[in-house]
Design goal:
single chain, two-stranded antiparallel ribbon, 7 helices
């Protein structure tokens, strides 16, 4: 009976195989027998079958594997930018970078921006707000790119929120957070009209200098 059970289980497993197959010639069954308890065993006590080992030879299904590779590497990508002479590599490269776009769009949902507190009824005003937010996001993304590029070139870092590690590619939001928690003070000299920045962390100062005056 245990071998019969093993055969039934093997049939279930075999039915799920897609990229390999088990050859009938190589399949063998071996009963695993043990005593029902530990310690000393009586002379007449017999071992019982507790499991069945199945030995089988496996062969690759070359046709199925080739088809699977084609399915997993086949993309249908549409674009409305028909003026550009896209290569397949360029188009799929842009598609693969969608995660960067999605990550930046997440900034617009930040509760600190209080967007959910703005109520607009006219479609024209909703469109105007979307244009403003999109333009702001473009500036945000470009600034973050420039910051990371300059930090990488000059090997600059700023600390993580818990100050346990140094971040080589921090988000712009993390830098804002770091600046906001640094106790920076603006001091205005009325006689000269100049404004001084006090308490600016060295890490932030170096990053700002690296990014340039503009």
């Amino acid at each position: 009976m245990p071998v019969y059970d093993a055969e039934q289980e093997l049939k279930k497993i075999t039915a799920k195989l897609k990229l390999v197959k088990l050859t009938d010639a190589g399949i063998g069954y071996e009963e695993v027998q043990k005593y029902t308890h530990k310690g000393r065993h009586g002379k007449d006590e017999q071992k019982v079958t507790v499991a069945v080992k199945v030995r089988a030879e496996v062969e690759l299904e070359d046709t199925a594997i080739e088809q699977k590779i084609k399915e997993d590497t086949y993309y249908v990508i549409c674009t409305n930018d028909v003026e550009r002479n896209w290569t397949m590599a360029e188009l799929i490269g842009v598609y693969k970078k969608q995660s960067v776009v999605e990550r930046n769009w997440r900034c617009l949902k930040d509760k600190k921006l209080l967007i959910n507190a703005i109520y607009l009824e006219l479609p024209s005003r909703i469109n105007a707000l979307m244009w403003i937010m999109t333009t702001a996001l473009l500036i945000y993304t470009a600034t973050e790119y420039l910051m990371r590029k300059k930090m990488q070139e000059q090997k600059l870092t700023i600390p993580s929120p818990d100050h346990k590690v140094q971040l080589e590619k921090p988000s712009l939001m993390r830098r804002y957070q770091y600046i906001g928690n640094s106790g920076i003070v603006l001091q205005c000299n009325r006689s000269t009209g100049k404004v001084s920045v006090l308490g600016l962390p060295t890490e932030v100062k170096l990053v700002l200098i690296a990014m340039g005056d503009e």
